[in-house]
Design goal:
Layout (H helix, E strand, L loop, with lengths): L25 H13 L4 H15 L1 H12 L4 H18 L3 H12 L14 H8 L18 H19 L4 H10 L9 H11 L20 H12 L11 H17 L4 H16 L16 H24 L24 E2 L9 E2 L2 H22 L9 H17 L13 H18 E2 L2 E2 L19 H23 L6 H15 L9 H14 L3 H15 L4 H6 L5 H6 L43 H12 L3 H13 L2
Antiparallel strand pairs: 1-2, 3-4
Helix pairs in contact: 1-4, 2-3, 2-5, 3-4, 6-7, 7-9, 9-10, 9-11, 11-12, 11-13, 12-13, 13-14, 14-15, 14-16, 15-16, 16-17, 16-18, 17-18, 17-19, 18-19, 18-20, 19-20, 20-23
Length: 642
């Protein structure tokens, strides 16, 4: 059966030299060191910001820094100098703005409006690829580049940072067949490879990842254009053979389009993938037995991964936007959760060589179990569940299932462990489901009652709103953990959805406090992720307007705890028309199909006073995957063309 888818020599001026840091102040050094090590490869950007602060506030410090750099001082020596300068500034109570900014960065509540600066030298990639976990050829897979190092770098980025969350193809089989270079393979194709490379560019800051260096809107554009050319020859409607690699490529294009909001093509690619899977008989069909003599082991594991990975994508997308899932059932058995070697490790290339357990098979199975609950939640929230259970009772039952799923997670997934990102994201996914269940489009209803014996003891007596806020705060903690361990520059796009959902959950509260530490932590994390894509910039702009409409800007300006970047972002409404560094984030918020709600409303933020969680979800959906209702019209137009 074939299923065709990286001791300064200059002395300080005596009159300006920072005072030696006394032993009693060792906590200052420790705090700075903790921040530098906690931000992964973002510490270079931190140093850049600190250079700017020192340069603008003290010319002597700037001169010393230049001399240190010219004399080849190490990054650690430069950081040590900055620690001393900070201690001196504290003692003299000068440069308060620079101190505020440093403290804000260290505490993780400063915001950024620029993505990490792209790196212009190919030699960086040559260096990185010496440690790339996957070495693969550019030819015959893509005409965009013949650079094996670049392709190896990008494939490694995708398989490390993106792949584990959904895992809708088998990475080992894909790598093996890509290395063989056989373009007619069922497990690798030019269509699949170019779609994967287009996605991988999202995680890279190197010139080669852009069509226009530094412009996030052009990341992966050349690879995407080639993938789209292959798409034309793989149209499902033309009646040709469906290769497994083509189905997987459609899912990769769904991921890519959902970051750019490309004319509703997110839903289009997802729905095409579902139709292809139905045609292959692996979803929404009677059970399919795969253990036949005609099917290779590579095919068996690949079909399982694809079918169940598609199920996860479908339930995540539709539950995110309170729509009914389209995949009702999966027709093949799941991969055994104990199949893989439990010693399999995950390494955060290219930021570190320190590995930690992957637990990929356990993760995948738990994610599938969660997907069943997510499917039922999507049906409940859409009110298409045909059961006779009262909708609110159904929500209670689903909440109980969620709580039980979390309670049954393996001990190795405990938050106290140093987890790979996909394991942290799994808990984020759980908490987004809790929030969506508690705060559906029909309003916040009583979910738990004190008389309900089935209610988990730690939640008994809390309202649905209380539970949603608790989950939002947990997402804040999880996002800070991701940032501390790996930096947010490599976070999967699902983290952007989860963080944004948590922000609006807090923002929707009657007792919303703009100085809430969890809210500021989430805002900081969101600002970093939002820099990386056009979708993120648009969503962050709408978030900025929604916060300003809450009329708490004066409290931010008066706070001594809030760094300057946050003050600028949440300036008072009377100042909201003044240009700021986020203005360009509104570039894509033009009228779409006559819908005024997508206009750039910067000139009248007060009009967003009623802009809440569900308004945000509608806009997020429209800006990313499109409107699902329009898929049917497009489908009919495409069918009539053949």
């Amino acid at each position: 059966m074939s299923m065709r888818r990286k001791k300064p020599n200059g002395a300080l001026p005596p009159e300006r030299a920072p005072a030696p840091v006394p032993q009693a102040d060792h906590h200052i050094q420790r705090a700075a060191a903790e921040y530098a090590t906690s931000s992964g490869n973002y510490h270079e950007d931190l140093l850049y910001d600190l250079f700017q602060v020192v340069r603008f506030t003290d010319p002597d410090h700037a001169q010393t820094l230049v001399e240190m750099i010219r004399n080849h001082a190490s990054l650690e020596e430069v950081r040590a100098y900055l620690d001393g300068a900070l201690a001196h500034a504290r003692a003299t109570a000068q440069d308060q703005e620079a101190l505020d900014r440093l403290e804000g960065l260290r505490r993780g509540i400063e915001v950024e409006s620029e993505p990490p600066r792209f790196r212009p030298q190919i030699m960086d990639i040559r260096y990185l690829c010496g440690s790339a976990p996957f070495r693969l050829p550019a030819k015959p897979w893509t005409s965009v580049t013949d650079d094996d190092d670049l392709v190896s770098h990008l494939v490694s980025l995708y398989l490390v940072w993106d792949y584990p969350f959904f895992a809708f193809f088998d990475s080992q089989t894909f790598v093996k067949h890509m290395a063989l270079g056989q373009v007619e393979s069922d497990f690798c194709s030019p269509f699949l490879v170019n779609a994967l490379l287009a996605n991988a560019c999202y995680y890279s800051q190197y010139t080669e990842a852009y069509s226009i260096p530094g412009d996030v809107r052009t990341k992966g554009a050349d690879f995407l254009a080639e993938a789209e050319r292959h798409l034309q020859s793989h149209q499902f409607e033309k009646g040709g053979d469906i290769r497994l690699a083509s189905l997987q490529a459609h899912l990769l294009l769904y991921e890519r389009y959902s970051l750019s909001g490309h004319d509703d093509w997110g839903y289009t690619m997802l729905h095409r993938a579902i139709e292809m899977a139905e045609s292959l008989g692996i979803v929404n069909k009677p059970d399919l037995v795969l253990g036949t003599s005609q099917m290779s082991e590579d095919m068996i594991v690949s079909v399982k991964r694809t079918a169940w990975g598609l199920f996860q994508v479908d339930t995540v997308v539709h539950t995110n936007f309170l729509r009914p899932s389209r995949v009702r059932s999966v027709s093949v058995e799941r991969i055994n959760r104990n199949d893989a070697d439990l010693s399999e490790m995950w390494t955060p290339y290219p930021i570190s060589n320190l590995s930690r357990p992957s637990y990929m098979s356990l993760y995948f199975d738990e994610a599938c179990r969660l997907s069943f609950i997510a499917r039922d939640i999507s049906w409940n929230l859409s009110r298409i569940d045909t059961s006779e259970i009262d909708p609110d009772q159904g929500k209670q039952d689903l909440y109980d299932q969620l709580c039980q799923w979390e309670a049954d997670l393996p001990d190795s997934f405990a938050p106290a462990e140093r987890l790979a990102p996909h394991l942290v994201l799994l808990r984020m996914r759980y908490h987004t489901l809790v929030i969506n269940l508690c705060c559906d489009r029909f309003g916040v209803h009583p979910l738990l009652s004190e008389s309900d014996d089935r209610t988990p003891p730690n939640s008994k007596g809390f309202s649905a709103g209380d539970i949603a806020v608790s989950s939002a705060r947990t997402i804040a903690n999880l996002s800070q953990r991701l940032r501390t361990e790996y930096g947010m520059e490599h976070a999967h796009q699902f983290a952007m959805y989860a963080i944004n959902l948590a922000l609006f959950t807090l923002l929707d509260q009657d007792n919303f406090d703009i100085l809430d530490r969890d809210f500021l932590t989430l805002t900081s994390a969101m600002s970093i992720i939002a820099c990386r894509s056009q979708l993120g910039r648009s969503v962050f702009h709408l978030f900025k307007l929604a916060v300003r409409s809450r009329n708490q800007g004066a409290r931010v300006q008066q706070s001594e705890e809030v760094p300057p970047g946050i003050k600028e972002l949440f300036q008072q409404d009377s100042q909201s028309r003044a240009p700021d560094r986020w203005d360009r984030y509104a570039e894509s918020l033009t009228k779409i199909d006559g819908d005024d709600s997508y206009l750039d409303t910067r000139e009248a933020p007060q009009s967003l006073a009623s802009y809440g969680l569900h308004d945000m979800l509608e806009r997020y959906e429209r800006l990313s995957v499109g409107k699902e209702d329009e898929w049917h019209d497009r489908r009919q137009r495409e069918e009539s063309a053949f």
